[in-house]
Design brief:
Blueprint (H helix, E strand, L loop, with lengths): L5 E2 L12 H13 L11 E4 L4 H14 L5 E7 L8 E3 L4 E4 L2 E4 L2 H10 L4 E2 L2 H4 L8 H7 L4 E7 L4 H18 L3 E6 L4 E3 L1 H16 L3 H10 L7 H13 L5 E8 L1 H4 L5 E9 L1
Parallel strand pairs: 1-5, 2-9, 3-8, 3-9, 4-7
Antiparallel strand pairs: 2-12, 4-8, 5-6, 10-12, 11-12
Length: 273
């Protein structure tokens, strides 16, 4: 019998607590502050992926609003530069301090068949934090969670939109409620004032469900949104699946926590449904 391949945490103890009890308590604090009376069944979302002390309150606001289904696709940027530009893992499980999250092999295989540019590749995911930090939030809201991780190291709009169309077709054929999570921070390492202006332009495009406009804003206005690729693919997919609206749940910058307004990172939590 083949052993299950486990991806162990790469950033536990740095981006979020490694102790399960401490992590659970911290997650519940972020979620309880924002808990909606009736969770929303959405098609997709954007959530930040910085250290929890900076962006956990924004991610918590998003995941508290959502009805988390048993199956999610989590797309993230490739910060490390390792591996393939379109990297998927279709077998095994990811470990967090809260336990293991199985990969849904059936959904992953269907995505690879529909979009052959997706390559089976563990190198792109091994030390990447951007998908990992979303998992504890998803785990605590959905105890039967399964997921498919995709890391994107390309900024080509045509490829990203084609991936989004493929995801939409696979989800539609699957016939189940599947949440598409785009893991992204917003503008990086400019002043708080500049970051808020740049981020507002990107957020406005997202709220219009306009993937091309988002791409153009990010590339032409030099918005340092690290996960614009996942966001473009998510917007393309959700719009094809019938999304008609998007809501900005919460926005903040690292300066709101650190007090440093000279060099900040922006964080936006957005729900698409």
């Amino acid at each position: 019998m083949t052993a299950i391949t486990i991806r162990h945490p790469a950033v536990a103890g740095r981006f979020y607590p490694a102790d399960p009890q401490v992590l659970r308590s911290e997650l519940q604090a972020y979620l309880s502050c924002e808990r909606a009376q009736k969770p929303v069944r959405a098609l997709g979302c954007i959530a930040p992926h910085a250290g929890y002390m900076y962006s956990g309150h924004v991610a918590g606001a998003v995941f508290a609003e959502l009805e988390i289904p048993e199956l999610c696709i989590v797309m993230c940027p490739n910060h490390t530069g390792m591996g393939q530009p379109l990297a998927i893992i279709s077998e095994g499980a990811w470990e967090t301090p809260l336990g293991e999250v199985p990969i849904d092999s059936g959904l992953a295989s269907a995505l690879k068949r529909r979009f052959p540019l997706l390559h089976e590749d563990t190198a792109a995911h091994r030390n990447e934090h951007a998908a990992e930090v979303e998992l504890p939030f998803l785990q605590i809201r959905q105890t039967r969670l399964r997921f498919v991780p995709i890391a994107l190291g390309t900024g080509r709009f045509e490829i990203l939109s084609q991936l989004g169309e493929a995801i939409a077709e696979v989800i539609a054929a699957h016939g189940r409620n599947i949440l598409i999570v785009a893991s992204s921070d917003m503008n990086h390492y400019e002043s708080d004032a500049i970051t808020r202006v740049k981020d507002q332009s990107a957020i406005e495009a997202i709220l219009r469900l306009d993937a091309l406009a988002l791409y153009e804003v990010v590339t032409q206005q030099h918005v340092g949104m690290c996960g614009f690729g996942p966001a473009v693919a998510m917007l393309t997919a959700t719009k094809k699946l019938g999304a008609c609206s998007a809501e900005l749940v919460k926005y903040a910058t690292s300066g709101d926590v650190s007090g440093d307004r000279d060099l900040v990172v922006g964080y936006a939590g957005i729900i698409v449904g």
